[in-house]
Every structure is written in structure tokens, then in C-alpha cells.
Amino acid sequence: MLAPSLLLMLLAAQAPGEVAPLVVTAQPKAPPPTDATVVIGADEDRVGGHKVGIWPDAALRARVRGQVVLTCKVNVHGLAETCRVAYEQPLGHGFGAAALSLRPTLTLTPKAGPDGPIPSEMNVAIEFKPPNTSSNLADILNSAGSVATDPTGRPQEQNRDVNIGGLQIRGNPVKTRRITMLNGPAWSHAPGFEALDAAYPAQGGGAPGYAVAHCRVQPTGVLSHCKAAIEEPAGRGFGQAAVALTPQFRVAPEAMASAPRGAPVEVDVPVRFAPPGSRPDRTVRAPVWLATFDPEAAARVFPAEAAAKGVQAGAAVLRCNVREAGALDGCEVMMARPDLLGFDEAALALARSMRMNLWSADARPVQGGDVLVSIEIDRRSPN
After folding, report:
1. Of 283, 304, 297, 299, whose CA–CA distance to 353 is shortest?
2. Which residues fall within 8 angstroms of residue 314, CB to CB, at 6 or more apart?
3. 205 Cβ partners below 8 Å, 6+ apart?
4. Which regions of the chain does DSSP assign to beta strands (E)?
5. What gap in Å lies between CA 71 and CA 124, rounded to an integer?
6. What pTM does this model have?
7. What are the pLDDT digits (tens) for 190-235?
8. In Å, how far from its chain's centre is CA 164?
9. Spatial distance between the Cα atoms of 36 and 70, rounded to a whole number of angstroms
10. What angle is formed at CA 219 by the lines to CA 213 and CA 223, rounded to 5 degrees?
11. What is the pLDDT of residues 26-62, one digit of tens each?
12. d(C-alpha 226, C-alpha 247), whole Å
């Protein structure tokens, strides 16, 4: 899915994240309480501003201020796996979609439980600050001293020294460019666990890392012109390590087929690095499903023995291997309820049609990993 007419703010030679359009059906009268605030400035006079930013095109040109609150599912690493718009003001200017585009760049402090960080929902306020068109340059020049005049009252030419120590000039808008951001792309190729482990930077110091590479997408799905947009912790090579992995990514042809012509198509690639030597963990905890199954398929495999007993619904939990193209294989039944009524076999049949994206919502590979899949089978008509 693509979101056109966005402006990429090139702050400190860095780039932003992806856009996930969302229709807001009920706008609350006031923003909900928030857990964190991010300021997106449009000029260099932005105290405490976010490192990267995307603005809706028309809103930036009109210098409209915006406020959005995102409700995000934040994992134990502080990464926002999914977000939705909880509040947007003013409506109709595209601030909600622009805020959602920043999801990969949001690194938050996760909520704490009795045994450490826990996944939770968090409200994140995104404030869009328009450019300051006023300049303090005249004030700076005046502070250098009064201008001498000749006997006729005309200013005399003279050299005036200005002490630049601590000098700050306001009203300096950053460079912008128009782009089309690719939202949650389906990947036809992505690195595996071995490639990700090998990419850990030498200067990483054994710390876990997170980085976002911002890239242009060619019509073939190949990524180019990639730059590090976010890296945490900074200065340890995680940004460049993420950029080095980008040749192994390719956007699926079906995603590129719907790309509009005109503005460059760009995408963010988030990468989470595990410390070298840590216990290998290849469990996929945040899968992004590209294909599941429809209710008609579930009705066709509904177990006859359950129907004969008047049972209308059941479920099973499977542990499966993730194979090529995100397909599931080697599934085993971990639990089925009600037991001994055939829901285990029905779930195994449905799992054959499921397929996940090759990069997870928590910025990790999936191919070669294991995933727990809960499948509910209900023959009753939805209300």
C-alpha cells in the first residue's frame, strides 16, 4: 500500500520511516493521556526534536501545526510493532498517516513488570511543528554595535566583528523532498538468521542494537541509495550494518506493480541486532501474515466428529517451521480444544495455506525460525 504526497525532512542527513494509512472513524474531543512525546520540527530551531521526520505536503507548505496520538503495541525491546491513530488534530491534513510513517523510528522505554520489561500498549504523542519563517539575523547584526554615520547622516562603511561563540540563528528551514513511502512491504527476499548474526558490527561492544536503513525502491524491487536513518546505541556501527544488509532485501513484484509514477518510491528497513554469543533464539514472535485462510476453507475442514456431537467451535495451537517464501512446514500440534474431536487435523490442514512476510514486525528474520500459530475454527455465522 502506498501513501503519496509526503515530504521527507532531511534532518542531519538522515531519513524517516514508513507510512501506514488508517481511517479514523471516531475522533475524540481531547487527546488521551500519553506515555511519551515526539516533536517533529520543520526547521533547525527545534529543541528536543526528533531526528527524522515526514510531513504531509500541503500541511508543510501551509505551515499548519499538527498533533497526533498513536496507540502502539510496544514490545520488550521498546519497539513499536504496530500503531493506530487514537487522536488527530486538525483532521484532513494527513498528519495521522505521517505520524504512522514514523513507527519504525520510535524507540521507547518499555513498561516494566515484576521481572523486567513487558509488552504493552502505549500512547505516543507526535507533535508536528511548522517552520519558523522569522529570522533573528537582524538582531544578531544589531548586537554587534551601532552603525557610525558621516556628517551627512549616511552610514559609514566599516568592518564589524561578531563573536560567534554560542551564536544561534533561527529561521533556517531544513531541505525537503517529495516522496512516496511504501507501507509495510511484502518482501520476496530478506536476510536469514545467519546473515543477520554475521552483520553484527565489530564495534558493537556486545550490546543489542537497533537501526533503520532508508532506501529508494527500484521498479524491480531492488533497494538502492540506502542511508542509515536511526541507530541505537549511536556510534557503534549499527546503522552501517543495517545498510550493508539491504542488498539482501527485495520488495515483492505485486507491491511494486501498484506503485504510482512520479515521486520516488522509498521504504524503511528496520533491523534489530542481538548480542553475539547470546543464546540463539529463532522463535518468530511478531509475524506479519500475508495469507491466512477464509471462513469457507474453515467450514470445509470442520471436523465431522465435532459436528456430530453438536460442537460449533474449536481451536488448536501449532508449532511450525517457517520455510521459503514464508510458508509453514513441519507443524506439530501443541494443544487442541475440545480434545479428541479432530480440531488438531483441521488446524494442520488450514496451516498449509498460511504465509508470513519474510521480515517480522519486531525487525528480525523469519525464514528458518519457528512460530506458534493459534487457529480458531467456528462454523457459526458471525453476528
Report:
1. 297
2. 303, 306, 336, 337, 338, 341, 343, 346, 376, 377
3. 236
4. 2-9, 36-41, 53-56, 66-74, 80-89, 112-113, 116-117, 120-129, 176-182, 187-189, 209-217, 223-232, 250-251, 265-273, 289-291, 313-322, 328-337, 355-356, 370-378
5. 6
6. 0.79
7. 999 999 999 999 999 999 999 999 999 999 999 999 999 999 999 9
8. 39
9. 10
10. 20
11. 667 788 999 999 888 766 554 445 566 788 888 888 8
12. 9
| AA letter at 120 | S
66 touches 128 (CB < 8 A): yes
Angle, alpha carbons 44-122-98 (nearest 5°): 40
Distance, CA of 240 to CA of 236 (rounded, Å) = 9
CB contact at 8 A, 241 and 212:
no
The backbone region for 51, taken as left when phi is positive above 0, alpha when psi lies in -120 to 50, beta otherwise, is: alpha
Architecture of domain 185-280: 2-Layer Sandwich (3.30)
Cα–Cα distance, 286 to 292 (Å, whole number) = 15
> Among positive and negative, which fits the CA dihedral 358, 360, 364, 370?
negative
Over the stretch 140-171, which tens digit does the pLDDT of each residue have?
556 555 555 566 655 555 555 545 455 454 55
User: How far apart are the C-alpha atoms of 249 and 221, rounded to whole Å?
Assistant: 8
- Could you tell me if 108 and 122 are in contact, meaning their C-beta atoms sit under 8 angstroms apart? yes
Q: Cell numbers at residue 268, please?
A: 524503511
| Segments of the chain assigned to CATH 3.30.1150.10 | 1-140
Q: Was domain 289-378 assigned CATH 3.30.2420.10? A: yes
> What's the fold here for domain 1-140?
3.30.1150
Distance CA 55, CA 323 (A): 38
Q: Where in the chain is the domain with CATH 3.30.2420.10?
A: 185-280, 289-378
User: What's the one-letter identity of residue 90?
Assistant: P
What pLDDT shows up at residue 4? 38
